[in-house]
Amino acid sequence: MLTLIQSHPASLGPHSGAGQAVGVTVINYNTAKQTLRCIASLGACTEPPAWIEVLDNASEPNDISQLQIQLPSLPHTQIRVYRSETNLGFAAGSNQLIEKLLQTPQCQYIGLLNNDAVAQANWVTELVSTLSTAPLQQGCAGGRMHQLEKPDQVDTLGISLYASLMPADRHALQDPFLGPTGGCCLMTRAFVQDIIQSTGYLFDERYFCYCEDTDLAMRANLLGYRPGYTDQLIALHEGQASSKGGYNQFIAYHGLRNTIWMHLKLMPTQLLWRHGWSLLLAHLMSIARHTLSGHPALMWRVYRDALKQWPQFRQERKQLKLLVRIQTHQLQAQVAHRFYRSGYLLLVIKQLVTPLFKIRKPISSS
Question: Residue 159: which of 119, 210, 96, 196 has the closest Cα?
Answer without folding.
Answer: 210
